[in-house]
Amino acid sequence: MRLRHFYNFLFFAILIPFLSSCFEVIEEISMKNDGTGDVVLTINLSQSKTKIASVMLLDSVQGYKVPSKQKIQQELNEAVAYLRKSEGITNVKSTADFNNFIATISFTFKDVSNINNITKNILAQQKIKATNTSSYTYNKATKTFSRKYQAISTAKTEFNKLKAKDKAVFNGATYTSIYRFESPVTSTTNPASNISKSKKAVMLKSNIMDLINGKINVSNSIQLSK
């Protein structure tokens, strides 16, 4: 397993082997009461931007071929093209900031179930194995939003095959999920999640190493006010 096999929509993941400090993966879902909504997925490597800018001037580092900006943009464009063909997905957009090394993909969904398996399928197109499965549901009658997360058992084994210097890349790396709603949140089932002061958003931030090692589960059931 190469480092980029690890996580969903790692738009700049082909740069991860060259990092020495932390990076962020951010997933934002904004749900409306009628079940429609928007997604913004972000990969933020800005804390390593100086090193990455220097590395991209080279052909290879430590046995890894250094991708060009054109190659990175191509990977991003392929993800966008797939999304535009996906059922229930519209208004697909992407950004790539090569000064700060931040990439985003955003889109609108007709039903939150439309985003199930999207990441897995995009990774499969690149012949990359997913390391977890996630499914989302929203019950309009009960106003309950749920995410079920299940790590794939082989992910930790494959990760442990990496060299120590490659594993170290994930030290300090974080994954953050942010869910926003039109109605106030009354409860959540994941004790690691935090409800905003407005009661209309839930955030769960975790260390990626904890996800790899199975020390944290980001499953959650969020009850909204009826």
TrEMBL record:
It comes from the Bacteria. PROSITE patterns: PROKAR_LIPOPROTEIN (PS51257). This is Lipoprotein.
